[in-house]
Design brief:
Layout lengths: L3 E2 L5 E2 L4 E6 L18 H6 L3 E2 L9 E2 L2 E8 L17 H6 L3 E2 L9 E2 L2 E3 L1
Antiparallel strand pairs: 1-2, 3-6, 4-5, 6-9, 7-8
Subcellular location: Secreted
Pfam family, one: Trefoil
Keywords: Disulfide bond, Secreted
């Protein structure tokens, strides 16, 4: 695989550490405040924070849980999970955040990377 960057929150070189902000795993009672009082959802997201106003009396704008992951495109051809469609090219595959390797004719050429925390 070659270097790939998309408009997703992570941009990585396959096989190295990537950092991902996880808003869904932050327990409401342990939300660290982020942003001034009265901050809007757009303002909150612009400063890299999470916004959730569905839980009363808890911070609505809060810091995400930072997850460090290893992204690896060296996936055995028999373990590849298809990420594309018939005829997808390398650039289209990378834009989906997936790996591309056409050296195995009977395996998916566009496939999901192995991700470990």
């Amino acid at each position: 695989c070659s270097v790939k960057c998309s408009r997703s929150p992570q941009c990585y070189h396959p096989g190295i550490q990537a950092v991902r902000n996880d808003c869904d795993s932050v327990y409401p009672l342990s939300r660290p405040h982020c942003g001034p009082p009265g901050v809007t959802a757009d303002q909150c997201k612009q400063i890299g924070c999470c916004f959730d106003n569905t839980v009363e009396w808890m911070p609505w704008c809060f810091q995400p849980l930072i997850r460090k992951e290893t992204i690896q495109c060296a996936v055995m051809s028999t373990r590849r999970v298809d990420c594309g469609f018939f005829g997808i090219n390398k650039e289209q595959c990378y834009l989906k955040g997936c790996c591309y390797d056409s050296s195995y004719p009977n395996a998916p050429w566009c496939f999901y990377p192995d991700i470990t925390e």
